[in-house]
What does this fold into?
Amino acid sequence: MSRDGWHEQVDSHDLLYERLKTYEGRPTAAPGTGKDLVNEPMIRHWCEAMGDTNPAYGGPDAIAPPTMLQAWTMGGLSGNTDRAGAYDELSTLLDGAGYTSIVATDCEQEYLRPLRPGDAITFDSVIESVSPRKTTKLGTGHFVTTRMDVRAGGELAGTHRFRVLKYAPAGRPPAPRPEPSVTPKRPRPVINRDNAGFWEGVAEHRLLIQRCTDCEVLRFPWLPGCNACGSLAWDTVEASGEGTVYSYVVMHHPPFPAFDPPYAVGLIELAEGVRIVSNVVGVPYDKVRIGMPVRLEFLKADEELDLPVFRAGGED
It folds into this structure.
């Protein structure tokens, strides 16, 4: 590229970014009203789906789980009407500049007051920031951050920030295949003070489940405190190894070193009542079924790493 061509390209990027910055602070859409009051049935369904038994979310003085903040703003299958705003304009501008792909990168929530059954929810959102042009492994584009303010009875209850990357996909050459003699290793688990005991058990081919020593509720994955009563005191019980497939997905893409897609990843409900995510082995990936009985075994992934997996008894 000539020097003049390079300068022209830089100038065009600068001009685009100047236009993008004008969208900061503008409403993403018209203000909205929650379709339902904060209510006990939705709280109960949420807690059941999340396996959250915290007593604060039930009873006469119940509050809603803070992480439900955005749920009260959702429009359901029919959506929220009259919500078009600056966000659609911004997306169209980025599409026109070649940034046609989008990926969510992260979200942040801040809780300022608890929500209780009967609260009427209102919300509004703005484009908080648009980043300069960034180059990532996915491609080159701009990070767009929106902020939603959620109010109960007119009082600010919390904020929800959501960030996406609008980008032009990078052209990538095919990844070189490893030499046949080189076997890539599985990713190492992140071991910290809260879960070290679990991995010590796995190294001994024991699947350990935490148990609260105050209320005796079992919990998995390992946590510093009890969801049921809040106690920090705990011991462990060893799983029998019996379980069933509660749910599963088949992984096709993207490929990772040391994995050979397609393969089945299951949410296994242990006989003790807790659930664990692991691989289902012993049958082809397309023969895995919900309700299928499985049995714990330990896979020696490499000389340094053993992993719990679950073997199905046979094919349908």
